Amino acid sequence: MQKTKRLIAIERIIVGENISSQEALLKKLKGKGIICTQATLSRNLRQLGVSRVPDGKGGYRYSLAGRNDASYSQEPKLNVLPGIRSLTGAGGLMVMKTIPGSANATAYFIDNSGRYEIAGTIAGDDTILIIPRDGITINQVHACLELIIPGLHRQIEPSGPGTLKVKQRNIRKQN
Fold first, then answer.
1. Phi–psi pair at 133, nearest 5 degrees
2. What's residue 160's pLDDT?
3. Does residue 138 register a pLDDT over 50?
4. Could you say which of 26, 76, 123, 138 has the lowest number of CB atoms within 10 Å?
């Protein structure tokens, strides 16, 4: 019960206030009657998917992926779309192929989207295994990925049963 109360309090504080350090967050929690160690707070922040982002004033603040107030809705977003090469359903899972070296960043982007449908990802150099939660279909995962990565449906096209591949693009060689 104490952990749940603490997680809810952390979430509310981060969404409602500009918190820039764990020390400041510990003080806010103490003010609400919640005492915890820095190590516990660090684990809780990781569990909630909290990250530090620029605050627009030369500093940083804590941010909850997908749950921030409107004043921070214009944070820069990572554009992973150009690196995606194909998306294939495989036995209830999805496999995404990317250009070499971009799978980890793309998986991180998917994991931190805050979408319930996706339990997690496992990334290599150019391949990502996308693992849906129990009861979530491949079609639901695909729809979810389209929400996470705007333009995905325009970049890939069917190329066989259960497989979508990148549409041909004109790519210029730079000298």
1. -70, 160
2. 61
3. yes
4. 76
